[in-house]
Design the sequence.
């Protein structure tokens, strides 16, 4: 399996939750503005995904950034 870690050369969002009772982890690198963020814990990862979706990643293509 290839490395799925987002980088400036390969931006994106990565979320992991290895088991139901372990906290989620997440991180992203935005290809539009090179922003990066990490989160640990289910609520924080949920907020990270919302931030990425609204303000980074696909939002750059939709808003012409």
Sequence:
């Amino acid at each position: 399996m290839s490395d799925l870690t987002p980088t400036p050369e390969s931006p994106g969002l990565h979320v992991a939750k290895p088991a139901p009772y372990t906290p989620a982890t997440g991180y992203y690198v935005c290809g539009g503005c090179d922003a990066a963020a990490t989160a640990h814990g289910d609520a924080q990862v949920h907020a990270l995904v919302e931030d990425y979706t609204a303000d980074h990643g696909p939002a750059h293509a939709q808003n012409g950034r």
Observations:
- The chain has a mean pLDDT of 87.
